[in-house]
Write a structure and sequence with these properties.
heterodimer, A: alpha+beta, Alpha-D-Glucose-1,6-Bisphosphate, Chain A, domain 4, 7-stranded antiparallel sheet, globular, B: mainly alpha, Arc Repressor Mutant, subunit A, two-stranded antiparallel sheet, 62% helix
């Protein structure tokens, strides 16, 4: 089949949301510890925003109560261009199946639009990580809504000042 | 060029894009396997290439499909976020109300016994 090589290798997921907020406000919500606790899976993050810098995502209290390790996601910053572009590796340790898979690559693109709106695109290269691909796409009923849930919640938080859980 | 700012709070576009069986079929195919070319997407559809392009453009304008270049190919990706936003805004709310309506119905019926 001639198309097999062109299609079989595509293991990228793309998520896009338009948020009425500045790129800087969205950048802060993604990269600063206090903001990241307020939406999505309420997981605190730490970023050393320079190439080679460390990224860590921490378990919240509920996750720890379920036996999650303190650090649930590890990664490395590959490219940081505030507040426009962030490229990082992303390797979740929250499940043995995802820990056993290779690290994935996450790209955050923020592009200002007219009317004080920013287009946020999250591109997740999940090559070689089928278990994680199921989780982040929201197909695992026990793992929450994945990126759609996180970005929808981020939009709600930035536009209304309140997240779903808040 | 799509005028992005018009999309932002425009649920109408998402509902309109979803109100067509061909477009829902295209989304289902992308859900099954993401990152497809136009040629792949038009196979098996009783429609001209131009017709499929038109449907894909409407899906893209609604934000449900995002395209990316990969070498010489243009790949189509399903973007589920607008559906999630519709779900949060229009479905969850009413589902909760229905649940509480059923709960109070049960309460009333049991009280009447």
């Amino acid at each position: 089949m001639t198309t097999a090589t062109a299609t079989a290798v595509v293991t990228t997921q793309v998520y896009r949301v338009y948020i009425k907020a500045t790129p800087q406000a969205i950048w802060d919500a993604i990269t600063t510890p206090d903001w990241a606790e307020k939406y999505g899976y309420a997981s605190r993050v730490e970023y050393d925003l320079r190439p080679g810098g460390a990224y860590r995502g921490f378990a919240n209290d509920a996750m720890r109560a379920h036996g999650a390790p303190d650090v649930i996601i590890v990664g490395e910053v590959l490219e940081s261009d505030p507040p426009r572009k962030l490229v990082q590796t992303w390797h979740p340790m929250f499940d043995p199946s995802t820990a056993a898979e290779p690290a994935t690559k996450l790209t955050w693109d923020l592009v200002p639009q007219q009317g004080g709106v920013t287009m946020l695109t999250v591109t997740h290269d999940v090559t070689g990580a089928p278990a994680l691909a199921r989780i982040v796409s929201g197909q695992d009923p026990n793992a929450g809504g994945g990126w759609s849930f996180v970005l929808s919640d981020l939009k709600t938080l930035l536009e209304t000042g309140k997240a779903f859980a808040g | 060029m799509v005028t992005y700012y018009r999309l932002v709070f425009d649920d109408d576009r998402v509902f309109k894009a979803l109100a067509d069986s061909t477009r829902r079929h295209l989304l289902d195919r992308l859900f099954a396997r993401d990152g497809r070319t136009l040629t792949e997407l038009e196979s098996g559809l009783e429609m001209t290439r131009f017709g499929v392009m038109k449907h894909l453009r409407l899906l893209e304008e609604a934000g449900l499909v995002v395209t990316r270049r990969s070498g010489r190919e243009k790949l189509h990706f399903l973007n589920p976020v607008p559906i999630r936003l519709i779900h949060d805004r229009w479905i969850d709310k009413y589902r909760e109300r229905r649940v509480s309506a059923l709960a109070s119905l049960k309460h009333e019926l049991e009280k009447a016994k």
